[in-house]
Write a structure and sequence with these properties.
Elements (H helix, E strand, L loop, with lengths): L1 E4 L5 H13 L4 E10 L11 E8 L8 E8 L12 E6 L15 E4 L20 E4 L12 E7 L19 E7 L11 E4 L3 H18 L3 H5 L3 E6 L13
């Protein structure tokens, strides 16, 4: 394990140190005293494991293609921006615009997330990105979603699991929300239904991994059931751009 202490380093120097370590052959990194440092692991590729202690700054893991990042703390905005493959596992909370445009890999957040999580996520080259939120999500979850899977568990809270306009503009993929804490409404153009057997198998497999990572009882997480949100049409706003 190659250790880097971020204390006293600005984000440029920290990222230089990370890239120097990777170029030197390091495949496991431990980062300590991270305090809002931006762009950690941006664009990195391959079987690299990073343990981050502290608060990851904006664009953690952006454009990432393969590494696994485990955050012992929280992350700020835009984590997983346009990531293609790999894992971001966060033991705390995440800010806004989580997973913007991701087309592969997984993001697993134990706590709550901010607004506009999963905007424009898509399934690139047959991949299906997965985003699991252990707590609640803010407004516009899955806005313009084109593919992949979002699961919201609403753990540790009596609040609504999702905010306003959930799934608005989505034209692919599926959002699954804990039935107990689903507020009963979604964005315009979104169909709310019950998961079928294939959906339930998909949810159970993902929850088994999530529960294993965060020390939860998978059966207890699954007990309330889920509602499924899917797009009513493949081109929800197509008529807005076509002449009469």
């Amino acid at each position: 394990m190659y250790a880097i202490d971020a204390k006293g380093l600005d984000y440029r120097r920290l990222n230089s140190r990370i890239r120097e370590a990777v170029a030197g052959g390091a495949t496991r990194l431990s980062l300590s005293n991270v305090n809002g440092h931006r762009y950690i692991a941006c664009g990195l590729r391959g079987p690299l494991k990073i343990e981050l202690n502290g608060t990851g700054g904006n664009d953690l893991g952006a454009y990432m293609n393969g590494p696994e990042i485990t955050v012992k703390g929280n992350v700020q905005d835009c984590a997983g921006n346009t990531m293609n493959a790999g894992s971001i596992i966060v033991e705390g909370r995440a800010g806004d615009i989580l997973g913007y445009g991701m087309c592969g890999g997984e993001i697993l957040i134990r706590g709550d997330v901010g607004s506009r999580t999963g905007v424009h996520i898509k399934a690139g080259e047959g991949q299906g990105p997965v985003l699991i939120i252990g707590g609640t999500a803010g407004d516009f979850l899955g806005e313009y979603m084109a593919g992949g899977t979002i699961i919201v568990l609403g753990l540790d809270s009596d609040a609504a699991a999702v905010g306003r306009q959930c799934g608005v503009g989505m034209y692919g993929g599926s959002i699954f929300v804990n039935a107990r804490s689903f507020p009963g409404y979604a964005g315009k153009g979104v169909v709310v239904s019950s998961p079928d057997d294939e959906d339930l198998a998909l949810i159970a497999g993902n929850i088994a991994r999530f529960a294993g990572l965060f020390g939860l009882d998978a059966a207890a997480v699954l007990k309330d059931g889920f509602v499924k949100l899917t797009p009513r049409a493949r081109r929800p706003y197509g008529s807005m751009y076509v002449g009469a």
